[in-house]
Specification:
single chain; mainly beta; Rubrerythrin, domain 2; 3-stranded antiparallel sheet; 0% helix; 25% strand
Length: 72
Amino acid sequence: MPMYDYCCKQCGDKFEELIFSRDKDKEIICPNCSSKDAERLMSAPVSIGTSSRSFGTSPEKCCRVQRGSSFL
């Protein structure tokens, strides 16, 4: 399934979007703040199996958020 991770550059929220090849020009909108300024993240590979190990579940902000003229 073509799921991609994105990070909003406005609020720092991390979210996933289902993107099919026919939707390659789809506008990505942050579900938290409705910003259209999101960047696609590199995702950890996922294997199908019985492993209890999980990736990407940190509640922390995923990218540097610009406020005013400096980055946090």
